[in-house]
Specification:
By secondary structure, the protein is mostly helical. It has two helices and no strands. It has helices spanning about 1-5, 15-50. It is elongated and about 55 Å long. The model has no long low-confidence stretch (mean pLDDT about 85).
């Protein structure tokens, strides 16, 4: 995906529509993983903070 993002830029112009669409598509898997693991992440951080 990052190679596709790099191809959207040229020396004198950028395809901003394509660049933003690819940026959203690139960040979606990470966002989905975070949403699914949010409860476990918060619980783990809370357990580690207790003295």
């Amino acid at each position: 995906m990052s190679a596709l993002l790099a191809q959207q830029n040229s020396t004198y112009s950028a395809n901003w529509n394509g660049l933003m669409a690819l940026a959203v598509l690139t960040s979606l898997p990470l966002l989905i993983v975070f949403i699914l693991a949010q409860k476990r992440l918060v619980n783990g951080l809370s357990l580690g903070a207790v003295k």
